[in-house]
Design goal:
Structural class: alpha+beta
CATH architecture of the largest domain: Beta Barrel
Number of domains: 5
Shape: elongated
Helix content: 10-25%
Strand content: 35-45%
C-alpha cells in the first residue's frame, strides 16, 4: 500500500471535506504533525469574495468571483494571488469563524501573481490569527504538504499530497527557454518564479490559498492546478514581495534589459548566456551584446547551467537598487571585461485600462514592455474593445481593436488620461479626427460624435384582446383528443381577472368557431390566427365562441378588452448608486404571476453584476414590497423612499420582496462614503 493512500486516509479522518477511496490507520506521529499544521494555519485561512470591474466588448463590466488567502500578520495583512484580487472594486474576507470583513488592496504584483490585502481594522484594535511563512528553499521532493483553501467557494477545506518537484519551471522543450505563463490579464509570470509542484488536489477557488508543511508553516501560495498537478509560488518569493510592500508601500524591481539563457548546450558550467538585448536598456547603453556570457553582476556569480537556474539570475537583477551603477563582468570572444550598467526600474507589461462610454470603446495605456513585444508605438492608447453601433465602431475608415490612438485632432495622446482630456475637449464636435498606428501604418480616422439613438416608445392604440393562452389543434393533437377532424385552438391558460375568466372559459376548452365562423387552424404556423381575428374586432365588443367541453359543444359570450400594457410600455427607473432598475407592475404581470388583482410593488428588471444590490441578495424579477418597513407601491414612492434613506444613511437597507410567490428579504449594506462621494 502506497504512502500516499496512508496520508490521504489520515486527512480524511481529520478533515471531513477530503475524500479517498480507502481508510487506513496512520502512524500517531504523522497524525500529530497534521493536527499541528492544521491548528496553526487554519484559523488564518480566509475565503475571499471579489467584486471586480473588467473590460470586455468595449465596455466596463462587473463580476463576482472568489478565491483563497491567508492572514500573515496580526494586523490583518492577507496574502493571495493577483489573479484573485485584480481589478477589484470591493473585497471581502471571511474567516473560519464566519466573520466577514471588507479588505483593501495594499499592492498588486502581477509578475509573481501575488496581491497583498489589508483587512479593514479601524485603529488596529483587532488582533487576527496569522500563519508564519516558512523557508521554501528547504522544501524537498517527497515532502508532505497540505493545500488549504476554499475550492469551488466551499470554505475551509484541506487536501494533502507530496511535493513532486520544488523547482519547477515551464520551458519550451525545443529551445530550452522559459515560457511565460499569463493568468487572467496580469503580467506574464515565470521570469522570477520556480514553482513548487505538488499533487494535493487543487480546484477553482483554491487560488491564493496556502501550501503548508507539517510544521504549520506556509511554504507556498497555490496558483494553479489540474489533472493531478498543483503549482505554488514559493514562500521566499512571497516574503520578498510582502516585506517590500509593508516597508515601502509598493514593489520596485531592478532591470538591466537582457534575456538570459542556460549555458549547458555551450558545455559551460559558469555564467549565463545573453539571448537578446532590449532597445534603449541599460544593457544596450553599456554595450552588452547577444552571445556574451555574463559571469557576475554586482560581484555576485551568475551561473545558470540549466534552465531551472535562470529565474535565480532574474531574481538577482530584480533585487538590485534602482538608479545604482553596478559592474557586470562578461566574457566575449574568450576575453573578460567589465561593463558598468545603471539599474533601471522594471516596468509592468500591462498599463491602465478604462472605458470611454460616449464613443463606445475601451483603451489601455501602452507600456514600453508591451510596445517592444507587440510592435507598438512607445506611447499612446491601445484600443482593446468596441461596442457595436457606437461612434467608434462606425468611424471611417474603420478602427479595429489593436490599433493605437496617437492623437485626437492636433492633440498628442500619451496615455489614457491624455485621451480622456482630449476627447472631453472635443465633446461638442460633430466630427472627431483620430490619428492611429496599425503596425507600421499611420492612419487618420474620423469619428462621427453621435451616440446610438434610443428606441421611440410605441404609440400604438390598444387592440382587442382575449385573456387566454392557446395551442393549435394540429392533426396529431386532434387524434390524441379522439377526433382527427378537429380544427381550432385548445385553451392552455385562462388569465385571472379577465373577461375570459369571468365568462367561465376553462383550460382544456376547444375553441372551434368565432361568431359561428369555423376556425380552420391545424398547423403550427397558424398559432396567431385566433389572435389576429380577435385584434380585428373592437375593444368592448362581445363575441361568441363555440367551444367543445367534455365532448359537448356549447357557446360562450365573451366581452373583448384592451390589450394589457406590456413591460416595454412602462418606463424603467434606475437606482444609480446601488445599480439596479425597477418598473411599475402591469396587469399582465399580475395575471401571469398569479398575484392578487390589486397587488402593488415595483418589479426589479436588472441588477448589475458586483453591485451592492447583488451583494445584498436582490435578483431580477423580485417584486419589492417595502424598504426599511416603508411600503413602495409604485416607482414614484420608490424614488421618494430611496431619497429619504440616502439622507439617513442607515447601515442596512432591508428590502421585503416577493420572489416566486414567496416572501423573503434582501439586505443591502451600502458603503455610503463610496457611493455618495
Amino acid at each position: 500500500m502506497s504512502k500516499r493512500v496512508v496520508f490521504l486516509s489520515v486527512l480524511l479522518v481529520l478533515c471531513p471535506l477530503l475524500s479517498v477511496a480507502q481508510r487506513i490507520p496512520a502512524p500517531d506521529a504523522l497524525r500529530r504533525d497534521i493536527e499541528r499544521a492544521r491548528d496553526r494555519v487554519f484559523p488564518a485561512l480566509v475565503n475571499i469574495l471579489v467584486v471586480s470591474r473588467y473590460f470586455e466588448g468595449g465596455r466596463a463590466q462587473y463580476a463576482i468571483s472568489g478565491g483563497s488567502g491567508a492572514i500573515v500578520t496580526e494586523t490583518g495583512v492577507v496574502l493571495t494571488n493577483f489573479h484573485v484580487a485584480e481589478d477589484a472594486v470591493r473585497i471581502f474576507c471571511t474567516l473560519g469563524t464566519g466573520e466577514r470583513f471588507e479588505a483593501r488592496v495594499l499592492a498588486h504584483d502581477p509578475l509573481t501573481d501575488l496581491s497583498i490585502l489589508q483587512i479593514r481594522n479601524e485603529g488596529n484594535q483587532r488582533k487576527f490569527p496569522f500563519a508564519p511563512l516558512g523557508n521554501s528553499d528547504e522544501v524537498k521532493t517527497g515532502d508532505n504538504v497540505l493545500a488549504m483553501g476554499n475550492p469551488l467557494l466551499l470554505s475551509s477545506s484541506v487536501t494533502m499530497g507530496i511535493v513532486s518537484n520544488p523547482r519547477r519551471v515551464f520551458i519550451n522543450p525545443v529551445s530550452s527557454e522559459i515560457e511565460m505563463q499569463e493568468f487572467e490579464t496580469g503580467d506574464r509570470s515565470g521570469m522570477l518564479t520556480r514553482w513548487i509542484q505538488h499533487d494535493a488536489l487543487i480546484l477553482p477557488g483554491n487560488s491564493g490559498g496556502p501550501l503548508v508543511n507539517l510544521k504549520g508553516e506556509i511554504v507556498g501560495v497555490n496558483q494553479l492546478g489540474g489533472s493531478g498537478l498543483g503549482f505554488a509560488i514559493p514562500s521566499n518569493i512571497a516574503r520578498r514581495v510582502l516585506d517590500q510592500v509593508l516597508k515601502t508601500g509598493t514593489i520596485t524591481r531592478g532591470w538591466l534589459g537582457f534575456s538570459a539563457l542556460p549555458t549547458e548546450k555551450l558545455r559551460r558550467r559558469e555564467g549565463v548566456l545573453v539571448g537578446s538585448i532590449a532597445p534603449d536598456s541599460p544593457a544596450e547603453r553599456a554595450g552588452l551584446q547577444p552571445g556574451d556570457i555574463v559571469l557576475s553582476i554586482a560581484g555576485k556569480p551568475t551561473n545558470a547551467r540549466f534552465v531551472e537556474e535562470v529565474p535565480l539570475i532574474y531574481q538577482l537583477i530584480a533585487d538590485l537598487e534602482v538608479g545604482k551603477t553596478v559592474p557586470v563582468v562578461i566574457e566575449r570572444g574568450g576575453q573578460r571585461q567589465t561593463l558598468n550598467m545603471e539599474v533601471a526600474r522594471m516596468e509592468p507589461y500591462y498599463g491602465e485600462e478604462d472605458e470611454f462610454r460616449a464613443l463606445g470603446f475601451t483603451g489601455r495605456d501602452i507600456t514600453r514592455p508591451m510596445a517592444r513585444a507587440r510592435r507598438l508605438p512607445p506611447t499612446g492608447v491601445l484600443v482593446t474593445g468596441m461596442r457595436p453601433g457606437f461612434p467608434l465602431d462606425n468611424a471611417e475608415p474603420k478602427i479595429n481593436p489593436g490599433d493605437a490612438i496617437l492623437q485626437v485632432g492636433s492633440t498628442p495622446v500619451a496615455n489614457v488620461r491624455d485621451l480622456r482630456k482630449a476627447l472631453e475637449a472635443h465633446k461638442d464636435a460633430e466630427l472627431i479626427p483620430l490619428t492611429l498606428q496599425r503596425r507600421e501604418e499611420v492612419i487618420i480616422s474620423v469619428v462621427r460624435n453621435r451616440p446610438p439613438s434610443e428606441p421611440s416608445p410605441s404609440a400604438e392604440l390598444p387592440r382587442a384582446w382575449l385573456g387566454v393562452r392557446t395551442q393549435v389543434i394540429t392533426r396529431t393533437v386532434a387524434e390524441a383528443l379522439g377526433n382527427p377532424d378537429l380544427k381550432g385552438f385548445r385553451i392552455t391558460e385562462v388569465l385571472p381577472y379577465t373577461e375570459a375568466s369571468k365568462a367561465g372559459l376553462q383550460v382544456g376548452d376547444l375553441i372551434v368557431a368565432l361568431n359561428d365562423e369555423p376556425l380552420t387552424a391545424n398547423r403550427p404556423q397558424d398559432a396567431r390566427d385566433l389572435e389576429r381575428r380577435i385584434e380585428s374586432r373592437s375593444v368592448g365588443e362581445e363575441v361568441q365562441l363555440t367551444i367543445i367541453r367534455n365532448g359537448t359543444e356549447q357557446k360562450v359570450a365573451v366581452k373583448l378588452e384592451p390589450t394589457p400594457a406590456s413591460a416595454e410600455s412602462v418606463r424603467p427607473v434606475r437606482q444609480r448608486e446601488l445599480e439596479f432598475t425597477v418598473r411599475e407592475i402591469t396587469p399582465i404581470d399580475r395575471m401571469r404571476n398569479r398575484w392578487k388583482e390589486d397587488q402593488q410593488g415595483v418589479l426589479v428588471t436588472e441588477v448589475a453584476n458586483g453591485s451592492f444590490a447583488q451583494l445584498g441578495g436582490l435578483k431580477a424579477d423580485d417584486l419589492i414590497l417595502a424598504i426599511n418597513e416603508q411600503p413602495v407601491p409604485d416607482t414614484k414612492t420608490f424614488q421618494s423612499v430611496m431619497q429619504e434613506l440616502f439622507q439617513q444613511r442607515p447601515p442596512v437597507l432591508v428590502l421585503f420582496i416577493l420572489r416566486n410567490r414567496e416572501t423573503t428579504f434582501a439586505f443591502i449594506e451600502p458603503d455610503w462614503n463610496e457611493i455618495l462621494q
